[in-house]
Amino acid sequence: MTLRQEVAPSGPGSADADQAVVDLEGVTKSFGAVQAVRGVSLRVSPGQVYGVLGPNGAGKTTLLRVLVGLVRADAGTVRVLGRPPADPVALRRVGALIESPAFVPHLSGRVNLRVLARARGLPDAEVVRVLGVVDMEKAADRRVSGYSLGMRQRLGVAAALLGDPSLLILDEPTNGLDPDGMAAMRALIRDLGGRATVLLSSHMLGEIQQVCDRVVVIDKGAVVAEDSVSALLDRAGARNVTVWAKPMDVAEKVLQGSALWSGATRAGGADDPHWRLELDEDGVPALVRALVEAGVEVHEVRRERRSLEQVFFTLTGDHTGGSGK
Ligand SMILES: Nc1ncnc2c1ncn2[C@@H]1O[C@H](COP(=O)(O)OP(=O)(O)OP(=O)(O)O)[C@@H](O)[C@H]1O
């Protein structure tokens, strides 16, 4: 579904540098007995590509629907471009792609966009512009019924871009796409991040890691973390550490005989023997000290950043190690 209204080039509803583009405080929404969103607070600053990450059913779509006024929050405050949700002044500067985009299948992509543009008083040149942004000029005159899912999604993004919105809201924009389609959509989103504030939802950790500056992780409707992607990746906790040290047998005794680290396993074969273990964030000095005190030469200690996936599973308590669903 695409949601767009007319464009207001400036004035009320446009975000200045300090004003949050999206500002939520204690937002709650239930459907009967289901608490879809529980006390969510977050701020999206101008120019950010902001991710809403959570497994299926976490409440992502409901949160995005609240922002565009499709769903009314039960409690809390919602401000989009400084205005209440569904305020026409703010909505003019919001482009949204929530759920599957609906187009007339027997019409071309270009004609579909023209219909949407004209309904909002936008010139045909705006259609040409957005087709260019999503790199769909070549396919623009083919019927939408013959489009791949990826092309439909790109056309959906093009529709959301009509009128050059300040805020672009994309609900699971790569859902159902093949790997090429996903890569193209991610590249497009990164590119769009230079033009507008982008708020996108995903249950795909790698996607958020690749595309977003900042992320809120929600689980069962509630925020479990809200941070920059890099800070989230830097979160304290067990980290994978690789150790190169000699002599091997002495090092092995030290590495396998302490409660300060865990999972010390030998790796690398005869030509490059080393150990891999899990260690607390600040545990490296103790590790090196223990080795040196035992007469071991420490050649290298390498810490690996945890993937966002590992952080996510820790935060949400999802240890299926699977899809994050
Ligand atoms: N209109 C509705 N009526 C009843 N329950 C709803 C409605 N919309 C959402 N829910 C419920 O609210 C919860 C959150 O759903 P929501 O679609 O927001 O999650 P999501 O994180 O977007 O999930 P997905 O990734 O599967 O789309 C789910 O339990 C869902 O069944």
From TrEMBL:
ABC transporter domain segment(s): 22-245
InterPro entries registered for this protein in UniProt: AAA+_ATPase, ABC_transporter-like_ATP-bd, ABC_transporter-like_CS, P-loop_NTPase
GO molecular function, one term: ATP hydrolysis activity
Name of one Pfam family that matches: ABC_tran
Lineage top rank: taxon: Bacteria
UniProt keyword list: ATP-binding, Nucleotide-binding, Transport
Family that this chain belongs to: Belongs to the ABC transporter superfamily.
Protein name as it appears in the record: ABC transporter ATP-binding protein
Species the sequence originates in: Sphaerisporangium album
